[in-house]
Design brief:
Distance between the termini: 69 Å
Shape: elongated
Order of helices and strands: HEEEEEE
Radius of gyration: 19 Å
Number of helices: 1
Number of strands: 6
Largest sheet: 4 strands, parallel
Structural class: mainly beta
Strand order of the largest sheet: 1-2-3-4
Length: about 130
């Protein structure tokens, strides 16, 4: 095995630094990011802060393992969410707050496992509960 073959094997095993990043601060191993701060392993993001392991997150803060999110904060494992706060495992939600496992909900708050709701609060599997329950 030649020196260049060994060098190529070594190069492929090592993590690579960021590519095409503009005005980032403390954001190693990110690619195609712009104006992001304290991000790690994030791909194609803009103006995000404290985000880890994301793909295409824009103007997000404290989001982890999310994809295609815009203006979200404190979200985990969310996909295609907009203006959502403190949501986990949500997909296609907009303006959701403190929701988990919801799909295609708009303006919902404190919901779990709901689908297709609009401006609803305190629902579990699309069944209404009071705040105390």
């Amino acid at each position: 095995m030649t020196f260049f073959d060994q060098f190529d094997q070594l190069r492929q095993k090592q993590p690579r630094l960021d590519l095409q990043c503009v005005l980032n601060e403390n954001s190693p191993y990110c690619q195609y990011t712009e104006k992001s701060k304290n991000c790690y392993m994030t791909f194609a993001s803009q103006s995000s802060e404290d985000c880890f392991y994301n793909t295409r997150v824009f103007y997000c803060k404290d989001c982890n393992d999310c994809a295609l999110c815009h203006n979200c904060e404190l979200c985990y494992e969310c996909v295609d969410c907009i203006k959502s706060y403190d949501c986990n495992y949500c997909t296609y939600c907009e303006s959701a707050t403190s929701c988990e496992n919801c799909h295609h909900c708009i303006g919902t708050q404190n919901c779990y496992g709901c689908v297709g709701l609009k401006r609803a609060q305190y629902q579990i599997f699309n069944k209404q509960y009071s705040k105390e329950d």
